[in-house]
Request: fold
Amino acid sequence: MHVFILTFMVVSKILLPPHSVDHTAPTLCTPTEINTLYQYPNNQFQSFRDEDEFYQQLNRTIYEEYPHASWNIRQKMAFRDIAEATEDFYLQTNSKPETIDLSQHTFVHPNRQVYFLASFQHNTDETYRKFLVIDAETQTVLLGQSQFQERTKDL
Reply:
């Protein structure tokens, strides 16, 4: 009996590839890029809090909407969509549209989930704009900008 078991084990190791069970599992998605190239790899299939929940728990020393803001944005999106979101923000706040060049951010996978937070406050004399991009998984600030404009008085 021992000889039969040993023979079976030897023959099965020769005929069956190692880890054959792993190769039979269904694949949900086939990665097209190696995630190790990114400091912030693809996390598009993970679940994170919604935008409002995220903002409510966010440390106010990192970001806080302007008091009496005219407009606030809270969105969860893919990193690749940040340039369009910032451009829309500037257009909606009657500012010169600024395009963010994400080509320098090669350490972030384009499908990485991030939170885009923006706030705009305007009165007769001053205009304030700011936005922040925070990684949804690590809560690391990836991008941000703040602007202040004082209205020039006609003499």
About this structure: Residues 2 and 8 are 10 Å apart (CA to CA).
